Amino acid sequence: MVLSMDRWIGKVAVVTGASSGIGAAIAERLVKEGLKVAGLARRDDRLEDLAKKLSSQKGIFLPIKTDISKESDILNAFKKIKEQLGPIHILVNNAGIVPPGSNILEGNIDAWTNIFEVNVIGLCIATREAIKDMKANNVNGHIIHINSILGHQVIQFKNMSLYPATKFAVTALAETLRLELGNQKSKIKITNVSPGLVDTEIIGAAKESPAFKEIIANQAILFPEDIADGVVYALSTPPHVQIQELTIRPVTEPKF
Ligand SMILES: NC(=O)c1ccc[n+]([C@@H]2O[C@H](COP(=O)([O-])OP(=O)(O)OC[C@H]3O[C@@H](n4cnc5c(N)ncnc54)[C@H](OP(=O)(O)O)[C@@H]3O)[C@@H](O)[C@H]2O)c1
């Protein structure tokens, strides 16, 4: 199998949650590969900083302030992308949260609704809009969901209770989409990328804990660039090859 990013050079990729962590690393890598990347997130100051950082690279970075939990924001973002960059070829559904108060025993419905709106419903809306545009332009594009190992198994993590449920939903949604696309004989690819623990802001206050310091000392953690490498691998496969699931874990498993 010959791996190459050549067919994506100059093409349009959308990365949700591009203001930090894994999304920022994926956006940066795709711009360096020569793609036109629209980065969506709420913190537009972070997106603007990334745009400045990438201004002399091969590709283009277009920051678009978007709340992925709001359909109107997503529709406006996709309109802007089509007008300013052109037909969409790649969508990386990366935006995700673990909001405080989402536990089952003490949680509240606002937190529960919010985590599903961002991690699941927003992903569905962005996917629908991207595929609509790919079909309108006869683009055999690629949809990538940034899932989690917690989308395949529920393991002990503090304050995580609804998070695995949203990621299990993402696993099911990737396969449902694969069936829907297959029924239409579409050549659009769908890849589910499932990382283990990655050093990003989503870890939150736990970063200050002794357990986390031990994880770092034991190198039991991945970095956002490792996941960007995985995304580029899936994108680099020839048109007839589809990476269905890519699980990326640190060699030493973290202990909490
Ligand atoms: N870190 C890990 O250990 C790990 C492991 C497996 C999977 N993941 C997954 O990786 C993805 C990225 O997370 P990360 O680890 O890189 O954490 P992160 O640094 O906190 O990044 C999360 C991103 O999602 C965006 N986001 C959150 N709510 C949003 C909203 N309402 N609208 C638009 N964007 C929103 C954030 O942007 P704004 O706040 O600026 O909106 C940010 O860019 C998530 O789906 C997460 O579940 C992470």
TrEMBL record:
Single GO MF annotation: oxidoreductase activity, acting on the CH-OH group of donors, NAD or NADP as acceptor
Annotated keywords: Oxidoreductase
Domain of life, source organism: Eukaryota
Any Pfam family hit: adh_short
Keyword Oxidoreductase in annotation: yes
Stated family: Belongs to the short-chain dehydrogenases/reductases (SDR) family.
The protein's name: Farnesol dehydrogenase-like
Organism encoding this protein: Exocentrus adspersus
